[in-house]
Amino acid sequence: MLDRRLGLPGAERTRFLSRHHLDDGSLNGGDDAAIPLRDFVEAMEDLGAVTGDSILGWAFGESYDLQELGEFGLALSLAPTLGTALRTFERAFCTIQTGTRVRLEVEGDEATFHYAILDQDIWPRRQDAELTLGLLSNLVKRFCGTDWRPAALGFEHGAGPGSVALSDRLRRGVRYNQDSNSLRLAAGLLDRRRPEASDAGFVHVSRMLDRRARETEQALRLRTRVKLAVLEGLHGGEVDQTAVATALGMSRRTLRRRLEEEGITFQRLVDECRHSSAMAWLTRTDLPLSEIALRLGYSDQTAFSRAFTRWAGASPRAVRKAARGVTT
């Protein structure tokens, strides 16, 4: 998504690209020019700071031309209904950005789209979050008209310089410090159709996109795929090795053997994911320690505190106090 529209003058643009080890080839995309997620997020944060644009991410996403997103964008453009487009977004987002949690949940008369980067060590990531939800807003408007606004919008990051500007742009309040980045709309809108949509064309492109999504996931190192599956599982409060193996298309025994070949164990990966998630929830949220323990799959707060102290060399309470500048 970081293309030629950086909006920077020549010399400043050159310095920006050099600072992030980028060039026009990587910006213009292509499978061989993929930008690692961490590098992309850091570049977006830097771009927001350099330009001084308080809502750069949102504006960037909401004005993005879907045709520039290759097969992914083409499938979204051809989708016959908004619901089909959002399910395609959910299913195939990995073809343009891996390592994320993307979910469409429908409950009663509300539909909520959730998005989050799974790697908690990638932070700050405000611009990326606002860009992605801006892109979703862009997609919904193609079906519902340019006057459509989200019923509710929430972000995992805190309020910042662009908060007022974004609320003014959307003509409604925005919630911050949420569990995930989310955009809500009326569920009835999922049936909206576009006159120029092509059912047959969509089916053809969708099949190619599904194949590419599978290839993208298979190309990741096994330990990376396992960590992503574990981080995804932590959102539900438990991680089961058999379930992870099944999700990756192999037996528990095969998973153990292949991880051993990479010099690591499943439990080690689980511990790493628990540690990074615990650090994020302790330092960025007000979640009670008991809730964090539950999310991480511990039987009680004591078991969590013992494990965390072993990892970090300090108790969860001490780490939280230090992050807030509290002295004892």
- The backbone outline, from C-alpha atoms, is globular
> What profile does the largest beta sheet have?
4 strands, antiparallel
Mean pLDDT score, rounded? Answer: 91
Pattern of helices and strands: HHHHHHEEHEHEHHHHHHHH
Query: Uncertain regions: pLDDT < 50 for 5+ in a row?
Result: none
Roughly how much helix do the residues carry, as a percent range? 40-55%
Structure description:
The chain has 328 residues and is α+β, with helices and mostly antiparallel strands. It has 16 helices and 4 strands. It has a 4-stranded antiparallel sheet, covered by helices on one side. A hairpin with a 2-residue loop joins strand 1 and strand 2. The chain is globular.
Brief synopsis:
With 328 residues, this protein is of the alpha+beta class.
Secondary structure topology:
Layout: H1 10-19, H2 24-27, H3 37-51, H4 56-62, H5 70-78, H6 82-92, E1 100-107, E2 110-117, H7 126-144, E3 152-154, H8 163-170, E4 181-186, H9 199-219, H10 222-234, H11 241-247, H12 252-261, H13 266-284, H14 289-295, H15 301-312, H16 316-323
Antiparallel strand pairs: 1-2, 2-4, 3-4
